[in-house]
Amino acid sequence: MSLTVSTFFLLNFLINTIMTLPQSLQETGQFIFPFMNRVGVVFVVSLIAAAIVSLLVPAKPDAMKIKLDKISYKTSLGFNLAGAGVIAFLILVYKIWW
Questions:
Q1: Helix (H) or strand (E) holding 35
Q2: Over the stretch 32-85, which tens digit does the pLDDT of each residue have?
Q3: How far, in Å, CA of 40 to CA of 43, rounded?
Q4: Torsion of CA 87, 92, 97, 98, to 10 degrees
Q5: Are 46 and 15 in contact (CB under 8 A)?
Q6: What is the DSSP string of 63-90?
Q7: Phi-psi bin for 57: left (phi > 0), alpha (psi -120 to 50), beta?
């Protein structure tokens, strides 16, 4: 079974629409489900839907290969010192105001 991008977005829209029904029920006072819990449930269901669709769509050979042989991930001394400074500053802020 091959799904296109438009089919994926249609399925995602339908799932998210169904998952927001509790909000409409909550506004009428018929259903109480905290907002952050609804956000988490919709996120998990969307993630599961995306995983299912990605498993159903056959992989394309040689599609969007990224070659990492000639890429250097080395950073400069200044960048490393600045990163260490930011981390030290955040540790200090959390230690003072937590």
A1: helix 35-56
A2: 667 788 788 889 888 888 888 888 877 777 766 778 888 888 999 999 999 999
A3: 5
A4: 60
A5: yes
A6: -S----TT------HHHHHHHHHHHHHH
A7: beta
